[in-house]
Design brief:
It contains 9 helices and 9 strands. By secondary structure, it is an alpha/beta fold. It is globular, with a radius of gyration of 21 Å. InterPro entries: Pantoate_ligase, Pantoate_ligase_C, Rossmann-like_a/b/a_fold.
Length: about 350
């Protein structure tokens, strides 16, 4: 198949061998030599290209990291592209987790299984050239950017992962099948990349919980690491969907983080007050249509009772204009005093 090249010098197509290699890519972990411009990561479009990149590192990886902190590891960050600072923080953390001689793989794949009817699959922002520029600056070694028929060579999979009850509440209630689609692609990418550690953002708290439970229940030999949410200075959690917000809509969207902060501040007054305080902030906000506001157990996603004492997770999903946003905040709840 003939390749075409975009402005970033990315070889496109399913050519065999290292057809996906970006011009200037370096074999050295974490990018270019000291003092030179960051090397762009190697780009793999096919399973064969990915396998070659993984085997090449496996054959040359040091038994112990340069810093003497143990074996070098392979770390993966799974994304749908349109990368922002939150994604880049995941990759920076992956670089640390992998070790000085480790390998960092970033997957970029807009997974059709996690989009429901009427959702924005076709409109989801895509900018591979821009993503590669950003990833070069944070030490990504390999980018796996497959087409849908590479991930799903037989079409829509007949056998899928079920998230069980975790996938039926909160996000699952508003987006039926979404969490099953997430877990199915996470499992497939885990098998393809074979990482030692996989990193996920804590902003998608329910997703992180589901991935952790899948790894435990299905005995996946991978460490799951959560990375704290990255926010803009005004408090808005970074999201690829923030690009859809107009200026006035962005101002209205700040009600989500304000509500979470207010709820967390109410923690010493008990669970009922946490819910009430956060709800009052959202109800007072114009142009914010709330899908749910929930205070849940951070392990089971069950609603906590009013007499709950200890850690909890306050989650919110809301629409601002046509954009659906999610956010969450850890809360330490004290028992309600009567």
């Amino acid at each position: 198949m003939t390749s075409t090249t975009d402005g970033a010098g990315v070889a496109r197509g399913d050519d065999t061998g290292a057809a996906g290699t970006v011009a200037g890519a370096s074999d050295s972990p974490g990018g270019a030599d000291a003092g030179s411009a960051p090397a762009r990561p190697l780009v793999a479009r096919t399973r064969e290209d990915l396998r070659e990149a993984l085997v090449r590192w496996t054959m040359s990886a040091p038994i112990a990291s340069v810093a003497g902190e143990g074996p070098a590891r392979r770390a993966v960050v799974m994304t749908m592209g349109a990368l922002h600072e939150g994604h880049l923080e995941l990759v920076r953390r992956a670089r640390e987790e992998a070790g000085a001689g480790g390998q960092v793989v970033v997957t970029i794949f807009v997974n059709p299984l996690q989009f429901g009817e009427g959702e924005d699959l076709a409109a989801y922002p895509r900018d591979l050239a821009g993503d590669l520029e950003k990833l070069a600056s944070v030490g990504a070694d390999v980018v796996f950017a497959p087409a849908p028929d590479t991930v799903y060579p037989f079409g829509e999979p007949v056998v899928r992962v079920s998230a069980g009850r975790i996938g039926e509440v909160l996000e699952g209630d508003f987006r039926p099948g979404h969490m099953d689609g997430v877990l199915t692609v996470v499992l497939k990418l885990t098998h393809l990349v074979r990482p030692d550690v996989a990193l996920f953002g804590e902003k998608d708290a329910q997703q992180l919980l589901a991935v952790r439970r899948m790894a435990a229940d299905l005995d996946l030999d991978v460490e799951i690491v959560g990375v704290p949410t990255v926010r803009d200075p005004d408090g808005l959690a970074l999201s690829s969907r923030n690009a859809y917000l107009s200026g006035p809509e962005r101002e209205r969207a700040l009600a989500l983080s304000r509500a979470l902060h207010a709820g967390a501040e109410a923690g010493p007054r008990g669970a009922a007050d946490v819910r009430r305080t956060a709800s009052d902030v959202l109800n007072a906000a114009d142009g914010v249509e709330v899908d749910y506001l929930a205070l849940v157990d951070p392990i089971t996603v069950d609603d906590v009772p009013d007499d709950h004492s200890g850690p909890a997770l306050l989650l919110v999903a809301a629409r601002v204009g046509t954009t659906r946003l999610i956010d969450n905040q850890a809360v330490e709840v004290s028992p309600q005093v009567t």
